């Protein structure tokens, strides 16, 4: 995709939280690109910096946190230089976000049609009837049956899966160039989850929308994303296309994540576990953040932060001693 301009380029992004206990480096030197029509998955344990990366892209970091370094290029323009008003005009229009809990998107005391019409008219000078028709089409596009009836409903009258579809429809109202999806299917049952994932794939392919899908669930990301960025302690430790990451991982942390997936272990065998716990963002190790949990650790790992090593093609990792075989 080198001849195509990426929709989003995150370059050496750093987002820190300045607390009474010290500086928490929630996002530390994160870089990745997302191209039109591409889905990039950000995966990792809780606290790895996935969601903060997504919020940083949209300028949604509240005090005591702030972006202290790096750039977020949206179609070549650095969003970190935008004013709050300019970002508000961009959010919900050219860039949309889907939250994990749809009730963070939906107002519980307003009907669905009221909320969707307001969203349309906030960024487009159209009549109320035209906005309503656009809202109806958006609901139909995400597979909601009887969209005219659903428009008249309040959020509490819809199931969790239906509310999440409405949230996705709102994100797609203006046919954005980029969507940040923060674990939007985590609370849903497997059947509804599969339906929503299929709809998202179709919508992105149809509208050439780029998407960053934040998740801790490798199985979900494997079936949805084109490329995967594995995050640990605020950094991307390995990235590559889906097949490479799943079949030929080289970073010990990625291998540990894959080994903990039940589908990768024979019946009756114990799941692989990554020993220890992730370090606090307030007290990261001097060298590689994964070194206290790594079976291949050396003195170099304990004292030096690994740079990005290119393993071939678009496959890269941050590891002084990459594993050259699949260990799952």
Point out poorly predicted stretches: none
Number of helices: 11
Mean pLDDT metric: 89
Rounded to the nearest angstrom, the distance between the terminal CA atoms is: 30 Å
The first-level CATH class name of the largest domain: Alpha Beta
Shape: globular
Tell me the structural class: alpha/beta
Tell me the count of domains.
2
Radius of gyration: 21 Å
Q: What is the string of helix and strand elements?
A: EEEHEEHEHHHHEHEHEEHHHEE
User: CATH topology of the largest domain, anyone?
Assistant: Rossmann fold
- Under the CATH scheme, which architecture of the largest domain would be assigned? 3-Layer(aba) Sandwich
User: How are the strands of the biggest sheet laid out side by side?
Assistant: 6-7-8-3-9-10-12-11
**Total E-strand runs:** 12
Tell me the β content: 15-25%
- Assign a percent range to the helix content: 25-40%
Write the CATH homologous superfamily of the largest domain: P-loop containing nucleotide triphosphate hydrolases
Main sheet makeup: 8 strands, mixed
List keywords for this structure.
328 residues; Rossmann fold; eight-stranded mixed beta sheet; four-stranded antiparallel beta sheet
Write the layout of secondary structure elements.
Elements: E1 8-19, E2 22-34, E3 39-43, H1 50-57, E4 65-74, E5 77-78, H2 84-90, E6 95-98, H3 112-123, H4 128-141, H5 147-151, H6 160-172, E7 178-182, H7 190-207, E8 210-215, H8 218-224, E9 227-232, E10 235-241, H9 242-247, H10 252-259, H11 299-303, E11 309-312, E12 315-317
Parallel strand pairs: 3-8, 3-9, 6-7, 7-8
Antiparallel strand pairs: 1-2, 1-4, 4-5, 9-10, 10-12, 11-12
């Amino acid at each position: 995709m080198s001849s195509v301009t990426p929709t989003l380029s995150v370059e050496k992004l750093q987002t820190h939280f300045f607390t009474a206990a010290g500086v928490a480096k929630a996002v530390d030197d994160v870089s990745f690109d997302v191209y039109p029509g591409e889905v990039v998955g950000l995966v990792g344990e809780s606290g790895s910096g996935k969601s903060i990366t997504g919020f940083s892209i949209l300028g949604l970091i509240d005090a005591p946190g702030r972006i202290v370094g790096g750039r977020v290029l949206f179609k070549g323009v650095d969003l970190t230089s935008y004013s709050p008003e300019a970002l508000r005009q961009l959010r919900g229009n050219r860039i949309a976000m889907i939250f994990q809990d749809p009730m963070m998107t939906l107002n519980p005391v307003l009907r669905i049609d009221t909320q969707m019409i307001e969203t349309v008219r906030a960024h487009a000078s159209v009549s109320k009837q035209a906005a309503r028709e656009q809202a109806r089409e958006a609901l139909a596009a995400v597979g909601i049956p009887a969209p005219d009836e659903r428009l008249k409903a309040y959020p509490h009258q819809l199931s969790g899966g239906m509310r999440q579809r409405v949230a996705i429809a709102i994100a797609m109202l203006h046919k954005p160039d980029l969507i940040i999806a923060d674990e939007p299917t985590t609370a849903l049952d497997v059947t509804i989850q599969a339906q929503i994932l299929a709809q998202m794939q179709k919508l992105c392919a149809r509208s050439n929308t780029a998407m960053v899908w934040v998740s801790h669930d490798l199985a979900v990301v494997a079936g949805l994303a084109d490329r995967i960025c594995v995050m640990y302690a605020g950094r991307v430790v390995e990235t590559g296309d889906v097949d490479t990451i799943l079949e030929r991982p080289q970073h010990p942390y990625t291998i540990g994540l894959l080994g903990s997936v039940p589908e990768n272990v024979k019946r009756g065998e114990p799941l692989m576990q990554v020993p220890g716990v992730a370090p606090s963002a307030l007290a990261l190790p001097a060298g590689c953040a994964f070194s206290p949990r790594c079976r291949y650790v050396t003195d170099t790992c304990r004292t030096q932060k690994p740079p990005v090593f290119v393993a071939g093609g678009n496959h890269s990792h941050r590891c002084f001693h990459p594993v050259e075989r699949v260990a799952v």
